[in-house]
Amino acid sequence: MEIAIITPNRLEAEGLRHLIRRIVDDDTTMRFFDSYGALMDDTSEMYDWYFVNPQTYALYNPFFQKFRKRCVLLIQGSSTVMIPEGTNYIDTMQSREKIGRALKKLVGDEINDETTNTSQLRKRELQAKRTAQWDTHLDLSQRELEVLRLVVLGYINKEIADKLSISLTTVITHRKHITEKLGIKSVSGLAVYAIMNGIVSADEV
Asked: With contact defined as beta carbons under 8 Å apart, do 137 and 145 qualify?
């Protein structure tokens, strides 16, 4: 098994490497990359698992989306970033024991795959269903998606109203619904969400 750890935080990477080593076999190879560029200089698509910090995942989402089921976000506190349903993640602020259990649940399933094909297939089918549910963007309407996109692109409420030919009050109402549905209040948080879910590209923001 090949594992890539992509984070600028060397200490975080070393701690994660140590915990993973405790649950994988001796044939597993782990490589540390301090940036997306460093990963691209390697054979970037060869890995079975990508452990990556949320900022890198968001900025280079088109690449990581291809391997979404094999990506694990390295978050620092579950309330600091909006995590799409069906996305693997590990909270690095938790205790070593909890991180270890989370790793075993993720990577351990891969190790036992040869002897539990039927069980693993069911898990993958469930994950696919969850991903499909996430693709509805938490039931945001088409108009709300349009408003969200424009907000992330830096338009103010009046400009959004003019661009979509709706009233200023309607824009404010849509923004309120978006915040309630996603649980995200800041524009920066909405930007991360929009990039991670393909509503905008990192180049547009």
From this structure: yes
